[in-house]
Amino acid sequence: MKKKRKTRLSKIIRKQQLQQFILVMATFAILFISLGMIVFHTFESNTYDGIDHGIDNQIKEIKNSPKVIGQTQIHAPGQNTPDQSDPNHRSPQPKAPFQTSILIYNQKKELVNKSGLGNRYSVLKHVPMRKSDLNKKVNITINNMNFRTELIKVSKDNNNAAYAGKYVMVVQNFDNQMESLENFENILIVSFGIFWLISLVLSYLLTKITMRPIIRSWKQQSEFVNDAAHELRTPLAIIQGKMEYMLTKPNDTIIEQAEPISVSLDEVNRLNSLTNSLLELARVDQATTKLNFQTVEPEAFLSDPIRPFEDIVKSQKKNYSYKFDEKIQLHVDRDKIKQLLIILLDNATKYTPEGGKISISDKVENNKYYITVSDTGVGISDADKQKIFGRFYRVDKSRTKATGGHGLGLSIAKQIVKNHHGKIFIEDNHPQGSKFIVELPIKHKL
Ligand code: ADP
Predict the structure, then answer these.
(1) Which of 105, 156, 213, 424 is 20 to 30 A off residue 28, Cα-Cα?
(2) What pTM, to 2 d.p., does this model score?
(3) Residue 135's closest CA among 154, 156, 151?
(4) In whole angstroms, what is the distance from residue 48 CA to residue 264 CA?
(5) Pocket test for ligand 1, best of 388, 392, 398, 401 (most atoms within 8 A of CB)
(6) What residue owns the CA closest to ligand 1's atom 11?
(7) Span 220-285 CATH architecture
(8) How far apart are CA 316 and CA 313, in angstroms?
(9) pLDDT by residue (tens digit) across 395-413?
(10) What number does CATH give the domain 294-445?
(11) Looking at domain 66-77+96-173, which of 3.40.1350, 1.20.1740, 3.90.550, 3.30.450 is its CATH number?
């Protein structure tokens, strides 16, 4: 039954882990893709800006061509073909950069500077000339070559007769930029892919680490609920049994049925104390407790539980001693510390046989305040020393009936100490019994 519950729990946990992992993975993917798109888009628009800037400069030069005196012949501008016949002759044609060509069309859309284009003509003749594209930047691809173009209409007053009144198209080849854009895209995809894989591994580890405390408290909570239900079930089953038995004897008197009645009452008492302990445990749980901290001397929380205990212990024919002489101030919730001492004194009394001795004392050492509750009782084995602070843990379950414990007292004690930033530990009391030592931080020495 317990095994079945455990596998169901680990199935839920695994599902939860997977969900969280997928969520983290998707988040990283979205982050990387958007980052990649932003970087690529920025790079791409910078590249196009650079190309467009070149085209715009070219157009500006065409529109503001310098005046040429004595120009008789129409040049075919747009090429990097300096006028070699006269080195002093200032060519009216703009100095187009290497990757730029200038195409001049007449009104009939015929290319008029074919000869000046040289061997580029075979490619550039395919550039479509559309008046609808006037003053627009257009991307075209010819023979796997990429060009960005802009068509303008040059005014008749232009100084360069080659351009005047013509349609001029600036054609910029951007294969180089395209290639680096593609390279950049590939690098981006590969490097982001690698980083995504790394982030997958990291997110897997991260999921495992972040889920660990959740899983632990989940398991603890589920165990706690199961144990609590189990503890409640036993007295309820006894009460039910006794009641059903009494129903079979409707004519009996109360005296005749005294035994089942008193057993039922005992179990009701057990249920009462169990529910009180469960409530207390829920209350001292760090998340829900609001402690009433005050600065007090030990006397404030020691005198109340200790002196009345003397009567109980002595009535059970056990010896009792206490010794307090520390004058210091502590910042504590005095009611909670009282409750802690009652748990320890109650246990010491419960687990010490007649004739045994229970003592309580305090001391200050290394700026810490220590309260020690020792007994000469049954003692606690080393293996049980840590376990007994666990919820519902009892060393000898068969003795429970006699002692009336549920195994919750020390869990409450541990939580109280934790809430006070202190510690609680157990030592053997030589030659017989155990010592419970509570360590609390000191506020002031008096
Ligand atoms: P309980 O209500 O059963 O006493 P606790 O949480 O207070 O629950 O204690 C848990 C277990 O630790 C007890 O069942 C008992 O076996 C053991 N224990 C606690 N205090 C002492 C002590 N002073 N001497 C011996 N055993 C002790």
Answers:
(1) 213
(2) 0.61
(3) 151
(4) 90
(5) 388
(6) 394
(7) Orthogonal Bundle (1.10)
(8) 5
(9) 876 655 566 678 889 999 9
(10) 3.30.565.10
(11) 3.30.450
